[in-house]
Design goal:
Blueprint (H helix, E strand, L loop, with lengths): L2 H17 L7 E5 L4 H10 L11 E8 L8 H13 L3 E5 L2 H5 L9 H19 L4 E3 L4 H14 L9 E4 L4 E4 L7 H11 L15 H15 L3 H8 L12
Parallel strand pairs: 1-2, 1-4, 2-3, 4-6
Antiparallel strand pairs: 5-6
Helix pairs in contact: 2-7, 6-8
Length: 245
């Protein structure tokens, strides 16, 4: 095990312990997009854990979004990897990508509808496989970016939370990388030779999230520590100094 792997496992376990994400007997569905973050999450959650219970069952799920031009290649790459690693898996075909970019979706952004439909599919599969936890690989960077997205474009102060109950407790959506920097996951994926795939979405580089990410990177370049300050500010909220009326 490399030093980087051990560091990532430590951050993973800190988040899991802090928010009670895993318990004895859990059956966990891991949403795998083919990106560095989700592949690293799968690697950690199926590997040896020190201070948190290892799930009784882990199911890797890859939802093929159905974009033209991929010819099913991403799904085949993921299936080959899951089989090579001996991980129970499900490859699910869909038309979520084209549908999110079609006239059907006139009110929401493609990203919003795509995310909503993918999550619905994951919950459906979690119910089918009797999984009580759905694990997503959102990172510390995602938490920070979502805060600013909601502030700038949603007129509210909120973000992703590490552990969230759905359907009156039938499922818990967990984010074990809520304390982990994205760049470390990308570094590990390269170090471990994980089969990282490029996002096939045609609008992936033209989203509000991408804009916020680039804005934070610029601020961090000009004023080192800004990213960490934003993250820590979420633990130091002063309601008395916010407008509530």
């Amino acid at each position: 095990m490399s030093k980087l792997y051990l560091h990532l496992r430590k951050r993973f376990e800190q988040a899991v312990l802090k928010h009670g994400m895993l318990a004895e007997g859990d059956r966990v569905l891991v949403g795998v997009s083919g990106g560095a973050d989700s592949l690293t999450l799968l690697k950690l959650i199926t590997g040896p854990l020190l201070f948190v219970p290892r799930p009784d069952f882990v199911l890797a799920v890859y939802v093929d979004l159905g974009f033209e031009g991929t010819n099913g290649q991403p799904a085949r790459i993921m299936m080959d990897y899951f089989e090579k690693e001996g991980i129970p898996h499900r490859i699910e075909s869909s038309n979520i990508g084209p549908l999110s970019h079609s006239d059907y979706n006139r009110k929401a952004s493609p990203c919003f509808l795509c995310s909503r439909l993918r999550r619905r599919k994951l919950f459906e599969l979690a119910r089918e496989y009797r999984c009580n936890k759905v694990a997503l690989a959102h990172t510390k960077d995602d938490v920070i970016e979502t805060l600013l997205l909601n502030l700038f474009f949603g007129r509210e102060i909120s973000t992703m939370i590490p552990c969230q109950s759905y359907f009156r407790g039938e499922f818990h959506l967990i984010r074990p990388f809520a304390y982990t920097d994205e760049y470390l996951l990308k570094r590990f994926a390269g170090e471990a030779g994980l089969p990282v795939m490029k996002n096939p979405c045609p609008t992936a580089d033209h989203t509000k999230r991408k804009y916020i990410k680039e804005l934070i990177n610029k601020l961090e370049k000009d004023h080192r520590g800004v990213r960490e300050n934003i993250f820590k500010a979420m633990r130091h909220v002063k309601p008395d100094y916010l407008l509530t009326k």
